[in-house]
Design goal:
This protein has nine helices and eleven strands. The chain is α+β, with helices and mostly antiparallel strands. The N terminus and C terminus are likely disordered. The structure holds zinc ion. Zinc ion binds next to loops. Pfam families: DUF4283. It comes from Spinacia oleracea (Spinach). This is DUF4283 domain-containing protein.
C-alpha cells in the first residue's frame, strides 16, 4: 500500500518539469494613487448599485423605471455596469441616502435589489437569502385584516414588512395583500392555517405576486420548467401573451364542513363580483412584455443563486466577477 510514487513513470509531471512555461517579466511602470481616482470616487459616491432579481431589463427600460420610482430624488445618470446591473447616480449624497431608505421597490413584482456604491464594490448579483415578496391572503375575513392578526397569520411564511395601501384602507376586501420577508429557499405553500378566535382551524389560501423559484431548464428565477421560455432543442419557443384574467378565487374554508360560518360564504361572493380588480400592479403587463424580451439573459441571477447552493459556478460575462458565497 505504501509504495513510493515513481516519478519517472509519470509522463505528465516530468514533461511539465522539463518544459516550464516561461513567465514574462513585468515591470510596473505606472502607479495610480488616490489623487488620480479622487474625482471618480467623488462622482460615484452618490450612487447606488441595483438590479432586478430574476430579470435583466434593457437599459432604456431600466432608465424609465428608475426615473419613475426615484425621479423625485433627482436621478442624474443610469449606467449599465453588468448584465442587468445598473449604477444609478443622484445629484446629491443626501438624495442618495434618501433612496436607500425609501423602501422596497418592485419591477414586474420582482424585487429590486439596491445597495450603496462603494469603491470596492463587486458588480455582481450576490446570492440573496432574504427577499420581500407580496402575498395575497385570498378572501381573508375582514375581522382578520388588522396588523396584529395579519402579522400572526403570515408569520408562517416570514416577517410581515407592511400592508399594502388598499388593504390598509379596507378598499378591496376580496383579499388582504401584505409584504413579507421570506427566505429564497423556503417552502411557499398555497394554503396556510390558523386557529381563529372560536378555536376553529381556518385554511387560508395564499397567492404570491412572484416567487423566487428556479427553473430546471434555464436556471432562471421566477418561473418553473412548465413556464420556461427557453425550451430544449426541438421545442417551439414560447411567446409572450397577456396573463389570463383571474375570474375566480377560492376563499378560506373552515375545516369543519358541518359548521360553515357565514363569513366564508360572503367572501366567495365578494371575490366573484369584483374579481376583475384582482390585478394588484398597474404597470405589470407593460413590464412583463419588456422583460420577457430579455429572458435570454435571465440566468445570471440564478447562477448566482445556484452558486449559493454550491452546484454551479457563476457569471464571467460582462463586468461581473464571480460572486462570493454568502
Ligand atoms: Zn426557464
Amino acid at each position: 500500500m505504501n509504495k513510493p510514487i515513481n516519478l519517472t513513470n509519470n509522463e505528465n509531471l516530468s514533461s511539465n518539469d522539463c518544459n516550464p512555461i516561461p513567465t514574462p517579466v513585468l515591470t510596473p511602470v505606472v502607479t495610480i494613487d488616490f489623487d488620480d481616482i479622487k474625482e471618480e470616487l467623488e462622482l460615484w459616491e452618490s450612487a447606488v448599485v441595483c438590479y432586478v432579481l430574476g430579470a435583466n431589463p434593457l437599459q432604456n427600460v431600466m432608465e424609465g423605471y428608475v426615473r419613475r420610482i426615484w425621479g423625485k430624488f433627482g436621478v442624474d445618470k443610469v449606467s449599465l455596469v453588468g448584465k442587468g446591473i445598473y449604477l444609478v447616480r443622484f445629484a446629491t449624497m443626501e438624495n442618495c441616502e434618501k433612496v436607500l431608505h425609501s423602501g422596497f421597490q418592485f419591477f414586474d413584482s420582482k424585487p429590486l435589489i439596491v445597495k450603496p456604491w462603494s469603491p470596492d464594490i463587486n458588480f455582481s448579483k450576490d446570492p440573496i437569502k432574504k427577499i420581500p415578496i407580496w402575498v395575497q391572503l385570498q378572501g381573508l375575513d375582514v375581522k382578520y385584516r388588522g396588523d396584529k392578526s395579519l402579522t400572526k397569520i403570515v408569520s408562517q411564511l416570514g416577517v410581515m414588512l407592511k400592508v399594502d395601501q388598499a388593504t390598509k384602507n379596507r378598499d378591496k376586501l376580496m383579499y388582504a395583500r401584505v409584504l413579507v420577508e421570506v427566505s429564497v429557499d423556503q417552502p411557499f405553500p398555497e394554503v396556510i392555517h390558523f386557529i381563529n378566535e372560536k378555536g376553529i382551524q381556518v385554511d387560508q389560501q395564499v397567492k404570491y405576486d412572484w416567487l423566487p423559484v428556479s427553473c430546471t431548464i434555464c436556471g432562471g428565477m421566477g418561473h418553473d420548467k412548465v413556464k420556461c421560455t427557453r425550451k430544449p432543442p426541438g421545442h417551439t419557443r414560447k411567446v409572450w401573451v397577456p396573463k389570463p384574467v383571474q375570474l375566480e378565487t377560492t376563499t378560506t374554508q373552515p375545516i369543519q364542513p358541518v359548521e360553515p360560518t357565514n363569513v366564508f360564504v360572503q367572501a366567495t361572493k365578494f371575490s366573484r363580483i369584483v374579481g376583475q380588480q384582482l390585478k394588484p400592479v398597474v404597470t405589470s403587463t407593460t413590464y412583463q412584455a419588456l422583460s420577457e424580451s430579455d429572458n435570454e439573459v435571465e440566468s445570471d441571477v440564478d447562477m448566482s443563486m445556484k452558486n449559493h447552493a454550491g452546484s454551479v459556478h457563476s457569471l464571467g460575462r460582462g463586468v461581473a466577477s464571480p460572486s462570493p458565497n454568502g
